[in-house]
Amino acid sequence: MAYHAISSGQTESAKDIFGFESDYLQPVSSAGDVNVSGYLSQKEISVKRFKEIMLSKNIQLDGEPDTWIGDMERTQSGTVKLIQIGDKTISGADIREMFSLRSANFDVSYSNNKFILLVYGYGHGVGMSQYGAESMAKQGAGCEEILHHYYGNCNIQKIDSQI
Questions:
Q1: Whole-number pLDDT of residue 23
Q2: pLDDT value for 163
Q3: Where does residue 98 rank: exposed (0-12), middle (13-18), buried (19+ CB within 10 A)?
Q4: Sign of torsion over alpha carbons 18, 20, 23, 26
Q5: Phi, psi of 98 (to 5 degrees)
Q6: Predicted pLDDT at 155
Q7: Which of 41, 45, 62, 98 is the most exposed place for a label (fewest CB within 10 A)?
């Protein structure tokens, strides 16, 4: 089963993040996540460092820094699927890795000679959110209710302990 630490308020589909279809790994609300410490993080990257990283990935940057970042394509839950940077279109997962972000659900802006990445959640976002599950439990939800919420279309069965 897939799980992660903190969603962006809604989990992701396996199709969008991992590339395969799954009946039980579909987006669901995880509203409790937006209230936990660590939901929102920020990373600032100097123009010099940003350019170094992009050039190391063979991404050419022309013009002024405020023109280097173009359109973004997002999943239904907000994670960046694709982003135009310089002469290439790359995945949000690649940006997450390049800059050691907590997730690929981010906004990017440019100001005062630096790029600012505002990051939502922590992890890939697929399946159960650990903090979302904790929030549901604190509101009185039981284990089966939480599992059914995050893993829809699944059956929970007791396994014979004699096996």
A1: 92
A2: 59
A3: middle
A4: positive
A5: -55, -40
A6: 87
A7: 62
